[in-house]
Amino acid sequence: MNQSATQEFGKMILSTEQIRKRVQEMARQISRDFQGKTAHVVGVMENSFIFMADLVREMEVPVICQFVQPESKQANASTTEIFFTPEIDVHGKDVLLLEALIQSGLTSDFLIRNLLGRGASSVKLAVLLDKQAARRVSLQPDYFGFLVNDSFVVGYGLGAPQLGRNLPYIAAATTPPTKPS
């Protein structure tokens, strides 16, 4: 990664090596907890794709991977509706929901309740970055990589909307990068 990319996206807060080691530790813990089961891993797009790829490669239990894309819209001044596509079959399955970054927790909380309502045997939440200070619901991940407080992070699959996702590390920026023209 060249110096101009580092300047554009801000200061590195988690190195490639730190991320790799923590993902391996998480995979060992998840593998112990899912021993004797198949992990139905559901990645929340778009941010989770790199985290999911690295994590499942390290897991030592059978894994089935799927992705969902949450969408939200403001129903009225006090209500936000959340939808996700595609609808997936989780009835009787042990689900591991993956998010690269959890902030308010609203989407994760909705997805957990929805997956359980669809008959999942269990739903565990794994996140790489946990921004607890931004939480708006009472929700704690079952597995997490790192606590962060930075206002905006890029790299390792996280970005604004298209930029910064390919950085092999995670950087903090004060403002989101602008889209290319």
Instruction: Describe the strand arrangement of the main beta sheet, using strand numbers.
Output: 4-3-2-5-6-7
Helix content: 25-40%
CATH class of one domain: Alpha Beta
In terms of DSSP E residues, the strand content is 25-35%
Report, as a whole number of angstroms, the end-to-end distance.
21 Å
Architecture (CATH level 2) name of one domain: 3-Layer(aba) Sandwich
Keyword list:
181 residues; alpha/beta; Rossmann fold; 6-stranded mixed β-sheet; 3-stranded antiparallel β-sheet; 4 helices; 26% helix; disordered N terminus
Write structural notes for this entry.
Strand 2, helix 3 (49-58) and strand 3 (63-76) form a beta-alpha-beta unit. It contains four helices and nine strands. It has a domain at 16-72 and 82-148: Rossmann fold (3-Layer(aba) Sandwich), CATH 3.40.50.2020. With 181 residues, it is α/β, with parallel strands linked by helices. Strands 4-3-2-5-6-7 form a six-stranded mixed sheet. It has a three-stranded antiparallel sheet with strand order 1-9-8. The chain is globular, with a radius of gyration of 16 Å.
